[in-house]
Amino acid sequence: MRASETFSLSIALSSANNPPRSPSSAFQAAVTAQLRETKLEWNSFAVGFFLDYYGLPKVKTHLPMLTVALDLPHGKAGIPGTSDAANSFT
Length: 90
Fold this sequence. Notes:
Oligomer: single chain
Shape: elongated
Helix content: 25-40%
C-alpha cells in the first residue's frame, strides 16, 4: 500500500464517523469514491484550511480564526527563532 492510499483511507474512515465539516464534503466523498473505482493514478489536496485564512479572508468560513503564528485581524506574526535566521513555511 502506498502512502497516498493510506492517507486517503484514513480520511475516508474518519469522515464516515463524523458529520461533514465543509459544504463541499459530500462532493469530495463522491469524487473520491469514483476515483477509487478507476485505475487512474490520482492525488487529493486539502487546501481549504489555508485558503479560508489567506486566500479569501473576508468570506464566511466554518473554521475558527487560527492565531498560532499569524494574527491577521491585527496584522501581527509570531515568527520563531532570531531575526537573522532564515525561515521557511509551507
